[in-house]
Structure to design on (486 residues):
């Protein structure tokens, strides 16, 4: 079978590996000159930055790709488990180290916030229960297939529905279970992992901490971009052909069956077509003459990001790989995001891969990936907002670290919602496609298959099961199941 994949994002690459490992002839067509989509890298004046995702969880999904390909991962991809997931900073000088070990983390919370460690461990146990009851069903299988729901696991989950907190928001659950406002804020921020608002997103999303405190957080040797490099090399070993700098103009549909693609008016025939392009643009640009799933395409978009890539001419021992400088008023911050604006006192995320990859910065320097959550692009004056945000971020971080940061910036690059859409075709620059600010959000993501067009499939962060490296890899696994087990 000849398979055409549109887009060399991480989901498209993973789909290519699975298809090629089945013996199919696979071509991946990518508009950019490089693979990876959001999982790319940036080099500036001796500094290297991971341009997109900065947290690596569920490495088993990467390992699984090497396993299905029949190749030993140890020779091609290495990573280390982190002892510290994140350092948290508040304006009142409170500091909290989120150790990866749950017991150690609970003890740290008890020491710094005077909250019994039993409270933390109970919350993490609740997160684990949610995963055990729903994780595999919602993440590893197509929700639109009846077979997904006719299982003992689903029946068991339905019996224990109240414990899933579907009818409460994440914030309501965290207030109920965690008591202390700083601890509530810490757990609320997991909503940002899929670009959602903890004051609206359903409580079942408190499943997310389980991925860090049970499965662990990791850092790949070579940085996050090493994931892309390793998987592209694996795909090539399995015979996958990559065509870069080629923009697909159309998915060819004949007799309600996808039969190929068009590039610059030239048709290439395929037996199967997989779009790793944002599902909105897949329909609006490549399937313009087909019925549009308007309800799905018009769902509320997720948040986006404003990222400053800063080369810093100093090292900060108090910072680790992941650091978060919390807003004083988290609810107000999300209210601003909902209105399409940026809060003056935003939560700042600083990721420093140099802490684990010394070649990412010159001696005695650091590479700062400095990010705030921002709304998707709805016509804001981004040039003005970027300057204002930069000033506010520098003021906030300088105040908390008691060091003037601006003179230490040796180089800078910026990524905002406009350039995110330009580089990755993410509609309006939304990082995760649609938000999860509704208890039915999982069912309103586009499925990994078309129920109108035969032999057409969809992978990546804008479709089921969602955004982020692990979920994009799972979208490829679901497609493999749909194609070969149906």
């Amino acid at each position: 079978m000849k398979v055409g994949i549109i887009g060399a994002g991480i989901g498209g690459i993973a789909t290519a590996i699975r298809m090629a490992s089945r013996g199919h002839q696979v071509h991946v067509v990518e508009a950019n000159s490089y693979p990876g989509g959001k999982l790319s890298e940036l080099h500036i004046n001796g500094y290297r930055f991971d341009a997109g995702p900065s947290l690596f969880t569920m490495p088993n999904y990467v390992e699984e790709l090497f396993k299905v390909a029949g190749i030993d991962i140890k020779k091609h991809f290495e990573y280390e488990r982190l002892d510290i997931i994140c350092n948290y900073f508040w304006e009142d000088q409170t500091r909290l180290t989120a150790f990866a070990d749950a017991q150690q983390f609970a003890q740290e919370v008890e020491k710094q916030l005077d909250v019994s460690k039993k409270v933390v461990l109970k919350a993490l146990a609740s997160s684990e229960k949610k995963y055990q009851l729903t994780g595999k069903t919602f993440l590893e299988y197509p929700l639109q297939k009846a077979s997904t729901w006719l299982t003992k696991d689903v029946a068991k989950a339905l019996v224990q529905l109240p414990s899933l907190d579907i009818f409460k928001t994440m914030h309501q659950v965290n207030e109920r279970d965690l008591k202390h406002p700083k601890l509530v804020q810490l757990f609320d921020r997991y909503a940002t992992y899929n670009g959602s608002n903890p004051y609206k997103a359903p409580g079942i999303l408190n499943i997310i901490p389980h991925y860090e405190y049970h499965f662990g957080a990791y850092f790949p040797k070579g940085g996050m971009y090493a994931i892309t490099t390793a998987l592209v090399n694996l795909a090539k070993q399995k015979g996958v052909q990559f065509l870069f700098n080629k923009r697909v103009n159309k998915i060819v549909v004949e007799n309600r069956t996808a039969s190929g693609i068009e590039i610059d008016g030239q048709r290439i025939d395929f037996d199967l077509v997989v779009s790793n392009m944002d599902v909105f643009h897949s329909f609006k640009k490549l399937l313009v003459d087909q019925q549009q799933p308007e309800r799905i395409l018009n769902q509320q978009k997720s948040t986006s990001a404003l990222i400053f890539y800063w080369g810093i001419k100093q090292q900060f021992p108090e910072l680790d790989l992941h650091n978060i400088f919390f807003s004083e008023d988290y609810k107000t911050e999300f209210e601003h995001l909902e209105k399409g604006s940026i809060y003056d006192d935003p939560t700042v995320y600083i990721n420093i891969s140099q802490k684990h990859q010394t070649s990412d910065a010159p001696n005695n320097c650091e590479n700062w990936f400095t990010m705030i959550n921002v709304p998707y692009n709805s016509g804001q004056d981004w040039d003005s907002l970027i300057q204002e945000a930069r000033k506010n971020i520098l003021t906030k971080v300088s105040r908390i670290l008691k060091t003037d940061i601006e003179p230490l910036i040796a180089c800078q690059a910026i990524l905002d919602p406009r350039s995110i859409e330009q580089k990755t075709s993410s509609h309006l620059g939304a990082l995760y496609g649609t938000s999860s600010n509704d208890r039915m959000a999982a069912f309103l993501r586009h499925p990994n298959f078309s129920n109108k067009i035969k032999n057409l499939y969809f992978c990546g962060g804008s479709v089921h099961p969602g955004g982020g490296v692990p979920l994009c890899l799972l979208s490829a696994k679901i497609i493999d199941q749909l194609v070969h087990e149906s």
In short: Residues 101-215 form one domain. The longest strand covers residues 304-312.
